[in-house]
Amino acid sequence: MAALPPPTDRLFDARGRRLDYAGRTLIMGILNVTPDSFSDGGRSAALDDAVANAHRLVAEGADILDIGGESTRPGHTPVPMEEELRRVLPAIEALAGLPVPISIDTQKAAVAEAALKAGAVIVNDIWGLMGDPDMARVAAAHEAGVVAMHNRASVDPTVDIVADIIAFFEQALERAARAGIRPDRIALDPGIGFGKSFEQNLKAIGSLAEIGKLGFPLLLGTSRKSLIGKVIETTPAERLPGTIASNVIGIMAGCAMIRVHDVAAHVQAARVTEAIRGAT
Question: What helix, strand, coil percent values describe the chain, rounded to 5?
Fold first, then answer.
């Protein structure tokens, strides 16, 4: 089966909630309900803290809340499905009434399905429908929005990373088509920091316009990542300026969404970038 054709309008559909990214970058706020996230591990592990932080992110202007219960940083310890469910489901159930859609950040189809039943409307899969063989079916059955992220099992500095990303996405889109996922329910994430060398991460960000020729909305996730710390030595908490710089480049290249820890700062940065881009 041929890959899906790109969507015909600039609306991302998540179970009937249509998010407009025409001329406006959507801000996905990160809510890690884990004790070991590389940047903010433990801040939202307790349910009361998760709820308070979620309300803060929404008040700051988040368009989407991305809830994750398993750290996927380099060297992370895999989390059993039962533990991941124990972490994410109470948060999703407590936050399902918020005015913004909830995304479940998981690589497990069973976790995605339980989260969708609990109130999530988007599946953010770090293996881009190419990992768990049941993920595409689950997303299609629930009419969920999907963020399909590029990933590699290992780093190979000799790989043409842009060609690899495009080939990966073409396969993911074929899998989505076979499952019956509509084109307007798919966004693509080049997977900064996943299976790439430092130079390949830079190349991927610098090639966003080329990757965007596939015609699907792009999500960029660079928030506080080690890429920034390798450019200039900083701890994750000190990487907001570098994160903003990379996201401004992404917005200028046409990214529809950015995934961030620091929502208020990025709302301001995005609106100013869009105003300048619109004036040229």
Answer: 45, 15, 40
